[in-house]
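Bit of a strange request maybe. I'm writing a small parser for structure token strings and I need a real example to test against, not something I typed by hand. Could someone generate the tokens for this chain?
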Amino acid sequence: MSRTCSPVRSSCGIISPVILAGASRRFYGEQINYVTGKANRILAVIRRNLSHCPSRVKSTCYRTLVRPHMEYCATVWDPHTIGGSQALERVQRRAARMAVSDYSRTSSVSDMLKRLQWPLLADRRRNARLVSLYKIAHGQTNIQTELYLKSAQKRTRGSHEHKYQVTPARTDCFKFSFFPRTISEWNQLPGQLVQARTAEAFKAGLLAAQP
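Reply from user aminoacidic:
Good idea to test on real output. This should exercise your parser:
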């Protein structure tokens, strides 16, 4: 990341308060515009210079040069609005057309994504947030677990014993920030999955559970 960027975009030091307290709507909008703009510029360079390369080469370039920019610290700024999520997905759909060299209006981009084995970016961000929560719950980060994860007092039939309380929220910015949003998703996971012994095993279980 460039050192000339704003602290929100370039410094990990701002991540902790944003994760814990939520961010403003302006932060989400600016961040999405920033990452999609940068990703589109890199994608345009790939398209101009590698137009005659095999599909696997262009696919590798997208996954190594473009997608990381749209996922850098995405556990912090993962958009909860349809518009924000679609803006990111549009970049990947544009990349899929580039990778298979098919720009026909009648072609199905969803089929291209399946052929390339590219999951939705929203699913990847969700899995990244859940893996981060797993690491926090197991003391693998510098975040004090006991301050932010409290065991749920009530459990419903079929729920697991590792459920956590969801902090009530009065605003969408906090409701869809890291802890409230991810804890809600965590509580809905199968008990066998949340009891995985390692973060790698937990991540593999999330991928296996996806349709």
